[in-house]
Amino acid sequence: MIVDDDVMTREVLALLAADAGFEADAFESGEFALEALDGSSTAIPEVILTDMQMPGVSGDSLARLLRVACGPATRIFAMSGTTVAADRTSAFDGFLLKPFSMEDVLAALDHAAAIPASATEDSEILSRKIYDSLAKTMSAEQLRQLYKLSLDDADARIEVMRNALAADDPDAYRRAAHSIKGGCGMVGAVELAGLASEMEQFGPQTVDDIGPLEQFLSASARLRRILDALSK
C-alpha cells in the first residue's frame, strides 16, 4: 500500500513496486487508506509506504491507526523528502528518505537500515541511478511521458506559487513547493527537488520574490534538454 498526497509520487512508486513483483494499491490520504482497509475492499497489505507530511491524519498517528487496522504482520515505513527526527517515526518499522529505489525498500524489509538517497553534488541535475532504474521498467516512450508529466506538473505548481505570492499566502506557497520536491525527487530531478526544498524551507521573502520561481523554470527547461538528449 502506498499513501502519498502527491500524484506523481504515487504513480512512480506503484510502477516500481509492480516491477519488483508487488501488487500495489495507492491512496492520496491516510483517511482514504483507512477507509479502504475498514471496508474490507482492500486486502491487508504486507508493506505500507506512507508519506510523513500530508493533510489530515499522517505521521505517527496514521501509523498507529494502520497498525490497528492491519495487525502486527504488516511492515509500515515512513517516507519523506527531508530527514525526520527519530521520535517522530517511533510507530513505524523504518524510514525511507526520498528519492529511494525498490532495492532500498527490500533492504529495509530484510531488517537492514533504510538506505538514504545517494549523496549528490549540488550541481547535479539528474540522478542517472534513478533514471536508469526507471528506464528498465518501461519503454522509451513511457519514460519520456513520465518525465514530461512530472515536469509539466512541477511547472504548473510554480504558477500556483506565483499566485500564492500575489495573494500573500506563504502557506500555499510552501505546500506547492513541498509537492514539487516530492514529485521531482521520485524521478531523480535532483536540482529541481533541491530548489523546491529551499523554497519550502525559506518561503517567500517578499510578496514579489519571483527570483526562485524563475530560477526553477530555467532549471526545468535545462533538464528537459538533457532528457531530450538522453532519449536520442
Protein model, in words:
The structure is a single chain. The chain has 232 residues and is of the alpha/beta class. Strand 1 (2-3), helix 1 and strand 2 (26-27) form a beta-alpha-beta unit. It starts with a strand and ends with a helix. It has helices at 7-19, 30-38, 59-70, 102-109, 128-135, 140-166, 170-186, 190-202, 211-230; strands spanning 2-3, 26-27, 47-51, 75-80, 94-97. Residues 112-123 have low confidence and may be disordered.
Task: Characterize this entry briefly.
With 232 residues, the chain is an alpha/beta fold. 55% of the residues lie in helices and 8% in strands.
Indicate the topology.
Layout: E1 2-3, H1 7-19, E2 26-27, H2 30-38, E3 47-51, H3 59-70, E4 75-80, E5 94-97, H4 102-109, H5 128-135, H6 140-166, H7 170-186, H8 190-202, H9 211-230
Shape: globular
User: Helix tally?
Assistant: 9
What is the fold-level CATH name, i.e. the topology of the largest domain? Answer: Rossmann fold
Task: Give the spatial strand order of the biggest sheet.
Answer: 2-1-3-4-5
Strand segment tally: 5
Count of distinct structural domains: 2
**Structural class, judged by helices and strands?**
alpha/beta
The CATH architecture name of the largest domain reads 3-Layer(aba) Sandwich
Could you tell me the radius of gyration in angstroms?
Answer: 18 Å
In CATH's first tier, which class of the largest domain applies?
Answer: Alpha Beta
Q: SSE order, as H and E?
A: EHEHEHEEHHHHHH
Hey, roughly how much beta strand do the residues contain? 5-15%
Helix content: 40-55%
How would you name the CATH homologous superfamily of the largest domain? Response regulator
